[in-house]
Amino acid sequence: MKEYKRQQQNLYKYTLANTNLREEKSTSSNVITVIPARSKVQVIEAEEYWYEVLYNGKRGYIYSDYLSKTKYTWTDVTLRSYPSAESNPVTTIPPKSIVQVLSVNGDWSHVMYNNQEGYIFSYFLSDDGNLPKEYDFKYFYTDMTKFVNDNKIKSPTTNLITTDLKNKLTYIFEKNHDGSWNLLYKWSCTVGKPSTPTIRGTFYVSGRKPYFGSDIYRVKYATRIRGSYYYHSILFNAAGTEIIDDRLGMALSHGCVRLATENAMWIYNNVLDKTTIIIN
To answer: Which residues form the active site (predicted)?
Structure first.
């Protein structure tokens, strides 16, 4: 099987509280050091529940809930000193910039940007750096083929993936000679629970892993959406020999999109890097 190398710019996150840096992807593994709250760590690798990071020359794992969340600006945004439009500006952030969200307070997000701390009106942030509702979503939840063709969705490859978070369905399309899209598959899927939602927006396949997991679980045929978000199989035990959670059509994941194992394998084996993904 062809191996895919993932290219990703350096990504930094911030700890939300005093956080244990661990030797393994387990809350029972040895603690290398305790990282103070609001510390900057470099992300080496990202998975649904754990991040492999570098901090002060030490390499280890942090549970994802203890790290900031990545968002993108979709327009010029003023970073302010307090969560108020009347507070002093700290700096202006250009469109498509990465910010790390520490917390959300009402309509405002407490963020870090280029080592500067401040507040952004949350409306100006998105998961993909694009204006919300960039497409006409009239048919997204009722006729996905009409949605992709009416909007003339583009993909650099011969495939297109869409995921309907409302109905919990993932669609695979194949490009016709005239550039229109033909529906190949429609699959039930499980998406992120309300506290850890699946990201929304337009993304591009950016690598894959045959499996990942911890001492508790394993998932197979993982295709990266962005960062720690993947399409992957239902849950197996840590050895990958027995299914421990095969539920589909629900909102209960940590943000990834779970599929039946054979469907996750199809994406893993057939959908090329750079393929467009639309999730809403």
So the answer is: 232 (proton donor/acceptor), 256 (nucleophile)
pLDDT of residue 52: 97
Catalytic choice (110, 177, 254, 256): 256
Is residue 189 part of the annotated active site? The answer reads no
Catalytic residue (one of 110, 177, 189, 232) = 232
DSSP string, 148-170: HHHTT---SSSEEEEEETTTTEE
Give the whole-angstrom CA distance, residue 60 versus residue 194: 28
pLDDT in tens, 185-231: 999 999 999 999 999 999 999 999 999 999 999 999 999 999 999 99
Give the CA dihedral 18, 24, 30, 31, nearest 10 degrees. Answer: -20
What is the location of CATH 2.30.30.40 in the chain?
Answer: 11-66, 69-126
Fold of 144-279: L,D-transpeptidase catalytic domain-like (2.40.440)
